[in-house]
Recover the amino acids of this structure.
């Protein structure tokens, strides 16, 4: 096998990336994986997995704050954007998922997304539902991060497309995401009760 005539990047790059952003337990990762599976070709970039590549010196976020953890949150976001750019150039729409509740964090993503349009979708089932889901799943968190819901609604109001998925199935939530962003990540007018730029109620 030879690779001399193989071109990695195609003539038709992916038109954009989708970033499901929400608090832990919001269904963010599940929705991102199911969304990527809807495309003929796509890449799911689970940003937590990038953090796990740090084998020594890893600092996960903590409720009381940690400057090194904050630095690593941005490091993994930058690396996620690098991966997204590579996949998009090769024609694979990237679907990233990360806990993004601060405007400065979202601004960092946008600054590092490069030429790939970043379409933000916020699954927002409310804090109680998010904690309930966390306790029902295999990958349970021992810290209740539901308090981040209030910060997210305050700081990201007016950003992205908010989808109340408290009573939606994963498939129904993905349908709402596709209706709002388009089948290839292009920004189309939302349909149904997926609302652009409006925080859903808890």
């Amino acid at each position: 096998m030879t690779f001399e005539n193989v071109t990695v990047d195609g003539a038709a790059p992916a038109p954009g990336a989708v970033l499901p952003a929400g608090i832990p337990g919001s269904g963010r990762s599940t929705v991102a994986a199911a969304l990527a599976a809807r495309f003929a070709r796509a890449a799911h970039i689970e940003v937590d997995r990038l953090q796990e590549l740090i084998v020594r010196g890893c600092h996960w976020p903590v409720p009381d704050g940690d400057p090194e953890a904050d630095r690593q949150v941005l490091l993994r976001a930058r690396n996620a954007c690098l991966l997204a750019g590579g996949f998009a150039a090769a024609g694979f729409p990237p679907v990233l998922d990360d806990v993004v509740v601060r405007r400065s964090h979202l601004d960092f993503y946008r600054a590092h997304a490069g030429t790939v349009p970043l379409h933000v979708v916020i699954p927002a089932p409310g804090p109680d539902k998010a904690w309930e889901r966390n306790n029902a799943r295999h990958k349970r968190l021992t810290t209740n991060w539901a308090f981040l819901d209030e910060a997210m609604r305050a700081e990201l109001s007016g950003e992205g497309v908010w989808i109340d998925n408290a009573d939606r199935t994963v498939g129904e939530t993905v349908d709402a995401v596709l209706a709002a962003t388009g089948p290839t990540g292009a920004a189309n007018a939302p349909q149904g009760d997926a609302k652009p730029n409006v925080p859903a109620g808890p």
Remarks:
- The beta strands are 17-20, 43-46, 94-97, 118-123, 161-163, 195-196.
- Helices lie at 28-38, 47-51, 67-89, 103-112, 127-136, 148-155, 170-181.
- The first strand starts at residue 17 and ends at 20.
- The two ends are 56 Å apart (CA to CA).
